Amino acid sequence: MTVINSIERGAPPARPASPKFSWAWLGLTPFFIFSLLFLLYPASILGVRSFQDTKTHAFTIKYIVQLLHDPYLLGAYGISIKISIITALGGGLFGFLLAYSAIRGGLPSFMRSSLMTFCGVASNFAGVPLAFAFIALLSPSGELTRILIKLGFNPYFHGFTLYTFWGLSLVYMYFQFPLMVLIIAPAIDGLRREWLEAAENLGASSFQYWRYVAFPILLPAILGTMILLFGNSFGAFATAQALTGGQINLVTIVIGSQLRGDVLGDPGVGYALALGMVFIMAIAIVIRTILQRQTERWLR
Amino acid sequence: MRRGNVVWSWFWMILGILYFFLPLLATFLFSLRAKLGVLSFTAYVNIFSDPNFIYNFSYSVLWALLTIIAGILILVPTAYLIRLRLPQFRTPVEFITLLPFVIPVIVYVFSLVRTFSQPPLLIVDSPVLLIAAYTVLSMPYMYSAVDTGLRAIDVRTLTEASQSLGAGWGTILFRVILPNIRAAILSGAFLSFAIVIGELILAEYLVKPAFAPYMNYMMQQKAYEPAAMAIVSFALTWACMGIIQFVGRGQQGQIAAGH
Amino acid sequence: MTHLTLTDISKQFAQTTVVQDFNLDVKSGEFVSFLGPSGCGKTTTLRMIAGFETPTTGRVMLGDVDITDKAPNQRNIGMVFQAYALFPNMTVAQNIGFGMQINKESKSAIKQRVDEMLTMIHLEQKGNSYPSQLSGGQQQRVALARALANRPKVLLLDEPLSALDAKIRVSLRAEIRAIQKKLGITAIYVTHDQEEALSISDRIVVMFEGKIEQVGTPFEIYNFPQTAFVASFVGTLNTTDAEIFNLSKKLIKIDGVQLETAEDLGGRKKGDKIKIAIRPERLNFASVEKKANVFDCTIENITFLGSVVRVQVKVGSNRFNMDTFNNPFLELPKIGAKEQITCSREAVLILNS
Predict the structure, then answer these.
(1) Which chain C residues are Cβ-neighbours of A205 within 8 angstroms?
(2) Chain centroid offset of residue B168 CA
(3) b vs e for C148-180, b when ≥16 Cβ sit within 10 Å of the residue's Cβ?
(4) How many Cα atoms within 13 Å fall on the side-chain side of residue B135?
(5) Which of A97, B136, C21, C276 is spaced 20 to 30 Å from A57 by Cα?
(6) Phi and psi (nearest 5°) for C324?
(7) Percentages helix, strand, coil for chain A, rounded to the nearest 5?
(8) CB–CB of B107 and A185 under 8 A?
(9) Digitized pLDDT (tens) for each residue of chain C, 353 residues in all
(10) Looking at chain C, which residue has its C-alpha nearest residue A296?
(11) Minimum distance, in Å, between the CA of residue B52 and any CA atom of chain A
């Protein structure tokens, strides 16, 4: 509260201040203190311990080396990246189509707000409850499975299992596409009506409008959000854990078992794995930021 | 778009609705099967008479609300100041808010435990740490939402108008700016709420009462009660969202945690 | 090029009638303005011509083709939007060439036409720039070029200049008119700025609350307004109530002051109450020139407007504005002084409603 008081005392300049040591910097201290204490400092431990031998605390790069050579660990990255790309593309595409249909697709206007509410709530269903819901739906004794069996078709006899990579992907989509809908909605709002009318006026069909105007304009936003979805999936843990009990070797699951101190586990490896994840995510975020600047320019 | 496209719109919407509701429906149906051969609400009776469930779920709601408040208190002034006065801080601050994305929760929890188990920062057992951790986790969404909301209103003109009428910073922030970004804050609140309620690892490892760990535990013990729990939590969350939305009515076109 | 006919056009949204009884015949190559205040229905009518709204009743004919039910992308009518609506993801050249690209014309034909257009709007160097890099006036010119590149039969402009600075508005409207004349294209221009409409139109359609008030040349609209609304909306006007004094001599009385009018008082009788109007510039000091009507007044206020000096006078209980050209060598009377002012018979207009 002291911080806010000291701000109120000063006379605020009428024009935005140029970069100088104005009192405004004080206003940012709560944020910086908070992030330093609860985010940056603990996170730095991650980097430190990746290079620190678990027992001797001496500097070492052995964990990193192990990471780059162990097929089991590399495989974990492969699976995580694979599921993240698939659900980002699938969830992103479906989410986009859904959002566009609700916002500009000629549907009654209550559909939009209903969709937004559903999406806000559907994100609630990530993790344990979501895993459970899909188990209730598609497990061997699940509701939908039962109905299908009654109709004469047992998916499990045809090679389908919920507890595999593809089953997990299906479950992941459930929180991916609401996220897409929520985030892409303002971008779709940003598509000005006049662009559609101008395009029509110049002779364009709906498809041509899409191809030459709407889609290129939205593309940076769509790609950027897909990267967000990628990150979302990449870092997910609880859903996979609850659904498959740790059978599918996502990087997060592997890290979990390493850090828990399982007999064969070594926290150092866990930290190194995490560092690798951070690295991949950082690249993704950088690409996304570039795309986002582009979006802002066109859809202001 | 013209008439032909409405068909496609309905197609995607119906597909979406199906995909949304089928798992929920299945969970609901499953929750009614507690009594053999008969559809009944036995499972619900069981959980509501289970003091542990009430205890854990209420705490989760409490943590969520506190997280949302903390998030607003920390992030709204920050985003506001950056937009208004300190644009040069935008990139570093945004970067920091995106870090929780980058760091897997499981690792974050461990580093938190390690950092705060030793004096002078011995708060590993305090709920403050839990709230702080939840706030960090929801930061990407909350900040993005607030930033989008601020982008849509003319922050500079509103501030200058308030100042010329004699308003101090507290008044400007909480009586001028905040009401105008209500819708954006709501969507950030939605996601934060969702994150806290569904979050498993933090509460488990920081040993605090929460819904997700309790449900996870119950999944091992019982079959039908977890289904009822899921439905109840879903319904209650929907109710909370509804209330939040009702309170925040009147701002169109800003409802999304846009990036 | 073709001419445009609107017959019995009306438009209803839910319970509100936004346009009614709209009939207009536009000649080929004519520049017609729809003039009126916000909400008078001018933009809605324009959008019905473009095809973005469907008329509730009536037909739109282009030449002898009924286009009322045609989709907007099949009418070959160009439109310039108020907010420019340039596609932000395309360069200026790509924007201009978009219509032709849709029409599947050859790359060389497109390039040639785009260059022609760029020269016409004096932006030859900006072909590869993006709209965000141009000023408002430049963007509007590009929007114009984009609409014209497609060789439309009619050009529609929806308040194209309202988002621009005053000075640019004046120069750009002249440019638009010059281009329209050169190409001989039929144009419909929507605006709420009466000075804009007066300066560039062949004819003006004055609209109010969804109906046409008057159609005529700028000269006619300004000097012979047929309704009180047209008279007050176009230019400044002094209006007041009067009573018919002498029918044969066409004398009327306002507050005891006697004025002679040249208008036809047909159908009325002595003692009838009517509404009259006099343009400020038709009044003058009697000491400068004497016309048929001379009467006393008291000077209340004098405002210097640059080329015009506006003198506010009191005649009986009425306040009139009198505009005289600025003459630095003419001594103006003091405030409070009593003066004689004059106006011709023709200057006294009778309003119908």
Answers:
(1) 73
(2) 30
(3) bbbebbbbbbbbbbeebeeebbeebbebbbebb
(4) 23
(5) B136
(6) -120, 150
(7) 75, 0, 25
(8) no
(9) 458 999 999 999 888 899 999 999 999 999 999 999 998 999 999 999 999 999 999 999 998 889 998 888 888 899 999 888 899 889 999 999 999 998 888 999 999 999 999 999 999 999 999 998 999 999 999 999 999 998 898 999 999 998 888 889 999 999 999 999 999 999 999 999 989 999 999 999 999 999 999 999 999 998 888 888 888 888 888 888 888 877 776 777 777 778 888 777 777 778 788 888 888 888 888 888 888 888 888 999 999 888 889 999 988 888 889 998 888 887 888 888 888 889 888 888 887 65
(10) C88
(11) 17
B120 cis-preceded (ω within 30 degrees of 0): yes
Structurally, how many domains does chain A consist of?
1
Size of interface A-C (CB pairs under 8 A): 70
Q: Which of residues 282-321 of C touch A (CB under 8 A)?
A: none
Is pTM, for the whole model, over 0.90? no
> How close, in Å, is residue A89 to chain C by CA atoms?
23
> What's the CA gap between C81 and C144, in Å, rounded?
9
Q: Which domain holds residue A130?
A: 41-298
Counting as contact any 3 or more CB pairs under 8 A, the partners of C are A
Distance CA C278, CA C260 (A): 12
From A125, A133, A285, residue closest to B98, measured CB to CB: A285
Chain A residues near residue B15 by CB distance under 8 angstroms: 94
Chain B residues whose beta carbon lies within 8 Å of the beta carbon of residue A251: 104
Domain at A85, CATH number: 1.10.3720.10
Interchain pair A259, B163: CB under 8 A: no
The answer to whether residue A140 is domain-embedded is yes
Mutation to test the A interface, candidates C89, C103, C105, C130, most A Cβ within 10 Å: C89
Chain C interface test: which of A192, A202, A223 (most C C-beta within 10 Å): A202
**In angstroms, what is the C-alpha Rg of chain C?**
25
Residue A18 lies in a domain: no
Rounded to 5 degrees, φ, ψ at C243 are: -130, 140
Supply the Cα-derived Rg of chain B in whole angstroms.
22
**Residue A201, SS3 per DSSP:** helix
Nearest by Cα to B30 from B238, B226, B218: B226
Q: Which positions in chain A touch C51 (Cβ < 8 Å)? A: 200
Q: Is residue A24, in this structure, part of any structural domain at all?
A: no
